[in-house]
Design brief:
Layout (H helix, E strand, L loop, with lengths): L2 E6 L2 E6 L4 H4 L6 E6 L2 E3 L10 E6 L3 H22 L4 E2 L4 E2 L2 E7 L6 H17 L2 E6 L2 H7 L4 H7 L5 H5 L4 H4 L5 E6 L5 E6 L15 E10 L8 E9 L3 H16 L2 H7 L3 E2 L10 E2 L1 H20 L3 E2 L5 E3 H7 L1 H5 L7 E3 L2 E5 L4 H9 L10 E10 L15 E11 L4 H18 L5 E7 L14 H17 L4 E5 L8 E7 L5 E10 L2 H4 L4 E2 L5 E2 L2 E6 L4 H11 L13 E5 L5 H13 L4 E3 L6 H11 L3 E5 L1 H6 L1 E6 L4 E6 H13 L5
Parallel strand pairs: 1-5, 16-20, 22-23, 29-30, 29-31
Antiparallel strand pairs: 1-2, 3-4, 3-5, 6-8, 7-8, 8-13, 9-10, 10-11, 12-13, 14-15, 17-19, 18-19, 20-21, 21-28, 22-24, 24-25, 25-28, 26-27, 31-32, 32-33
Length: 660
């Protein structure tokens, strides 16, 4: 047989005809698949002359997806072994894990998940191989006749899959229809599933680095009109140690859950009587929110913005003009009828800012013209995606719009990005990267974006140039743009390494045209401005949720709803303590005194739970010396601090935004 020429991990090699990835990477257990000419394939597939081949490591993102999708197959095999009547839905890899949907008679219980884990372990130990075979649509429909959900997916090959159902591209996303059989060592087929692949060479590579985490209800293809299935979630990692580390991260995230801390610290709640996704802020939470609003209000003024306010609802025609109803109707609340006049609760502030710009003639001398407001908007989020403050229906944005000449656009984007990053640093978020969201260039989704190719190219080039000049990591997000233009978003990492989308900067060439916005240029001609949207917090509600988890409720002293909590050792020291805290309150320090009948030890424990930055303790020695004792959140304590010095410490910590 004639030899073939290959490029393997960047090096030229000669191999025999019939060579597979298994041959090339024999002995390297870390390689679980091959990337051939950019396409992911199973290791055992043959290579051709001229192929460029890379080994895919189990530890890299593609390798982890393959591990997790293979584990999802093992889960499905275990479910049908334990529950033979179960019908298969979709089982894709997701961030840090996988899920698989099943149509079963009864919801899965925790005991069921334990039983399924044991069955999965048995399958894994058998060392079954994942064997790919191509099938024609008609043959697949015949073979899968007992699997109605799989049959529904058969006609969705290619680009239609992901639009039809979340995760469907993992099943039928390629140009060919394939089934993967799980084959035992004796050659018998244990089980099979419609799947795009690729998969691990053997179930043994899953090892003991997996766990089933929970089950939940999920509608088939995400529609409430379809049957409700049972979704089993799991996670899988290359080693048991990595699994344990992930579980520890989850436990830490659970301890930081802003929904629990919000109740514990009495910050906010979600009363059923108000409705899902509509938070109410209690006095302490409102203080935190007001501190944020005061900060960002002043910062906007310093950065050259003018403050405006606009109504919460408008005639429906306004949102037709802006393009939101034609392109974003599903995200807006239903119309309100006022004697035949349709109104809409606003889902965005920009259309009304455009009316302010248009209210009088504008000159190039006014540009950049910058407006901002604390505008509360309302989004018709489905109840299933709501999550505490980080996904709500009521969104209060520090929303700004800059109107600039085209030649000013890059400078304004840089100005806004610098503003955003300085704000994040002031709030203790200093680990971040940028994401550039662009339109889909082809496929069905292209029609969801408006504007010419030239407009998109120009807008995208401006954002990319500014992002690259920042020196920050820049990650592409194709298809993630708003319908009216591309955007930069700042992705911030919190104290335990999780990434949150925070601030956004969007380039809009669409609305100035729709609203016929103009300014008089220096040559006397009428020109169309460019509109740049920016929300520094993103939304105040979401930002509070992220900060609560970032700080685990122990906010910096300048943000803390209660900055000083006074605790007397005994009731007789209460008058002296109240004199000290009164002096602090006169200087704007937020203080409380625990005058309850609880014992001193319990008061200290309560103070620790409340996460107040400064606990002021007063006993006999303190009173006699005109001093106080400080107890900090880490449990350390300083005694005998003169009152004036103690006040100065607190005031300075607030003024300098110290991370106490």
């Amino acid at each position: 047989m004639a030899p073939i020429s290959l490029t393997v991990n960047g090096e030229h090699r000669t191999a025999e005809t019939g060579t597979t990835g298994t041959d090339l990477f024999e002995g390297d257990r870390a390689v679980v698949a091959q990337r051939v000419n950019g396409e992911l394939r199973d290791l055992y597939r043959e290579l051709g002359d001229g192929d460029v081949v890379e080994g895919v490591l189990i530890s890299e993102p593609d390798g982890l997806d393959i591990l997790r999708h293979s584990t999802a197959h093992v889960l499905a095999q275990a479910v049908q072994a334990e529950f033979p009547e179960a019908k298969l839905g979709i089982g894709p890899p997701i961030t840090d894990g996988f899920y698989y949907d099943f149509d079963v008679a009864e919801p899965f219980t925790p005991e069921d998940l334990k039983k399924l884990s044991k069955t999965m372990q048995r399958i894994i130990k058998e060392g079954q191989t994942f064997v790919r075979r191509e099938v024609a649509d008609a043959d697949a429909l015949t073979e899968l006749a007992a699997e109605p959900y799989k049959c529904e997916l058969v006609g969705l090959k290619g680009g239609a899959a992901e639009d039809a159902a979340e995760g469907a591209s993992a099943e039928v996303g390629g140009s060919e229809l394939t089934i993967y059989d799980n084959v035992r060592r004796d050659g018998t087929v244990a089980w099979g599933d419609l799947c795009r692949g690729p998969h691990l060479p053997s179930t043994k590579l899953i090892g003991n680095g997996f766990a089933l985490t929970r089950s939940a209800a999920a509608y088939w293809r995400g529609s409430e009109k379809n049957p409700q299935l049972q979704r089993v979630y799991g996670t899988a990692w290359p080693t048991k140690d990595e699994l344990k580390a992930y579980q520890e991260r989850l436990a830490e995230a659970e301890r930081r859950d802003h929904r629990k801390l919000g109740a514990q610290l009495d910050l906010f709640s979600f009363p059923e009587e108000v409705g899902p996704g509509l938070p109410v802020f209690h006095p302490r939470g409102a203080i935190l929110r007001k501190e944020m609003e005061d900060y960002v209000y002043q910062r906007h003024l310093e950065e050259g913005f003018s403050y405006v306010t606009t109504p919460h609802l408008s005639k429906e025609e306004l949102f037709h003009t802006s393009g939101h109803l034609p392109y974003y109707a599903e995200g807006m609340m239903p119309e309100l009828d006022d004697d035949g006049q349709a109104y809409r609760v606003k889902a965005m502030n920009c259309p009304m800012h455009n009316l302010i710009f248009r209210s009088q003639q504008r000159s190039y001398r006014e540009l950049p013209l910058r407006y901002f407001e604390f505008g509360t908007v309302y989004r018709n989020e489905k109840s299933g995606v709501l999550q505490g403050l980080t996904r709500v229906r009521m969104i209060t944005q520090d929303d700004s719009h800059s109107y600039v000449a085209k030649e000013q656009a890059a400078g304004e984007v840089k100005h806004l990005l610098d503003f955003v990053l300085s704000l994040l640093r002031d709030f203790g978020l200093d680990d971040y990267y940028l994401e550039l969201s662009t339109r889909d260039e082809d496929g069905d989704k292209k029609d969801k974006f408006i504007g010419t190719d030239e407009q998109w190219a120009e807008a995208t080039a401006v954002l990319r140039e500014v992002a690259e000049e920042s020196g920050l990591e820049l990650v592409p997000d194709p298809g993630g743009a708003a319908y009216y233009g591309p955007k930069i978003s700042v992705q911030a990492r919190d104290a335990i390494g999780r990434t949150w989308q925070m601030s956004t900067i969007q380039y809009d060439f669409n609305q100035p045209e729709r609203f016929e916005l103009e300014y008089q240029a220096s040559d006397g001609s009428r020109q169309r401005p460019v509109m740049i949207h920016s929300a520094k917090f993103g939304s105040i509600e979401r930002f509070i949720g992220v900060l609560t988890e970032h700080y685990a409720g122990a906010f910096p002293v300048w943000l803390s709803p209660v900055q000083v909590l006074g605790v007397p050792v005994a009731e007789e020291f209460l008058p002296y303590l109240e004199e000290v805290t009164a002096k602090m309150r006169a200087l704007g320090v937020r203080t409380e005194v625990d005058a309850s009948d609880d014992r001193f030890g319990k008061k200290i424990r309560n103070a620790s739970t409340s996460k107040v930055p400064f606990v002021l303790i007063v006993g006999g020695d303190d009173r006699d010396a005109g001093a106080v004792s400080f107890r900090y959140r880490d449990g350390s304590q300083e005694n005998g601090i003169p009152v004036d010095e103690a006040i100065d410490r607190v005031v300075e910590a607030i003024a300098t935004r110290a991370q106490v």
